[in-house]
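Q: Can someone sanity-check these two? First one:
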Amino acid sequence: MRVVLGGVRGSSPRTHPDFMQFGGATSCVLVEEQGTCAVLDAGTGLRAFAGELGVLRSTPPLLLFTHYHLDHVIGLPSFAPLYDPGWSAVLAAPDREGVSVETAVERLTAAPFWPVTFRARIRFERLPDECPEPPCRHGALEVRWCAVRHRNGCHAYRLDAAEAGGASMALVTDLEWTASSALEQAALLYLLRHPRPVDLLLIEGYDAAAHPDAFGHSAWRETLGLARAAGARRVVVTHHAPEDTDRSLTRREAEVQNVFPGARFGRDGMIFSWRGASESPEPV
């Protein structure tokens, strides 16, 4: 499995030099397994994948959305492959507060907010509210998900290589962990633990001292405690606050590693590649 972080910033992008070491693009993750590509979220980091995703494949790319807040979808309207009539993709998500993925994308690209129409062959897929068992299959990937607590609805996703003993990854962002019910917490822990503890967990983690009013999000001590309880093999903190400079993130990464050895902070362009249970997901 190959996982590439296209964007690791939350809420809004940054372009100032003080933010370049960790990156200023908003949420987007590429997952590739034996020629099958999936993308989690479509923030401004999506543009980094235009060349790779624009290649025609026997299995079209799958775009999954954790939710529809603008920082997670704003890269979609200007994504070049969507204007290629020979290109195809599947855009999928469960309904959130009665809004389907098709309706959300139509609203995002409707006048007066966007002036042109997609020309690619897009198939919208409404995922069930509850992840089925066996899980959904897309090419060489198995797709699992569960709802997490966040305003306007949000989902965490887990992708596993379909072959036995294959690699696995999960993205958990915009999570209100302490406000979650016992059932919501149990569902997320189950997602991260089954069919076995996830190899690579990308999870948000704000600095509670610097952002005491980070509405709709969780502090790193909460989310990394969750990661430890889930038994995740590698943890990467993502969705950095737009105010967090390279200096503040470097300082906090060192603080986090004192408490959770092996944890890393995500950076735009960071790549992980591994084969499954026999290997550890190390950055390359």
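And here is the second, same format, sequence then tokens:
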Amino acid sequence: MYEEPYKWVEAIDNRRQYLDDQFKQGSPVVALAYDTGILLLSVSKSTSKFYEIYDRLALGGMGHPADLEKLRVNLLEMAHVEGFNRSPSDVTGSRMVKYGIAPVIKQAFEEVFKAPFIVKLLLAELGHKAGKDSFLVVNYDGTFEEGTSCTVLAASKTVEQEMIASICGKVSAVLSLEQAFDLALRTWALGDRLQHKTVEEPSGESSSGQPEDTEATSLSAYLRDRVAEKTIECVLLDRNRSDSSKYRALPSDEIGRLLPKDLTPLIL
């Protein structure tokens, strides 16, 4: 009788180890604010990582495609029911996470005799004014965090912290689309490199351990190797769009114009 709680805790620990292993080969996701909205970026081989949820809400994710699709549909249904029964202004990222998707993920994670969701989610909400944007990250155990200028998804908390440390202080409401794209792409490269441990970090140093210009060159070289056979996916929540929907996926030709010159041939 007294052993049952300990067995449950042990089962939860085993689940965490299993799920952490599942994300090691996943592609990081970066979201940040820029002068007219929010930019979300990732790099993948085929499966899309970004979806429109509602007029001012975009979803990003990493993990099993079937689990991501199931949760995407749940979010879509909840958002449109809320918008119809209440009003579009009631469809907020915070409400979608706290009363919608986070409890579902938490329940699946804690029911040890059922399969958990192999997924991490990022929900970006465009504010009506610059500086009012919202970013929410939901982990595979249903816990969530909220930010106001940027956030990331990666295989582990350690990698996510390194990525946030790199991007922190560089995000601002005056970033142009070109600057935001470049920053997001390099942050993705940093996270992907850390996940695959292609560079050994000296203890006690920063994530790069190199001067800024040397690190930028190193990341450019890494990007050339990693994106050659993959697709850069980038979507915007654009405050300047006249439609009620602010979501826009960038086509490959526009991404090509935003890429650094040494990377452009890789996707054209």
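A (reply): Looked at the second one. The CA atoms of residues 53 and 77 lie 9 Å apart. The chain has one domain: 26-266.
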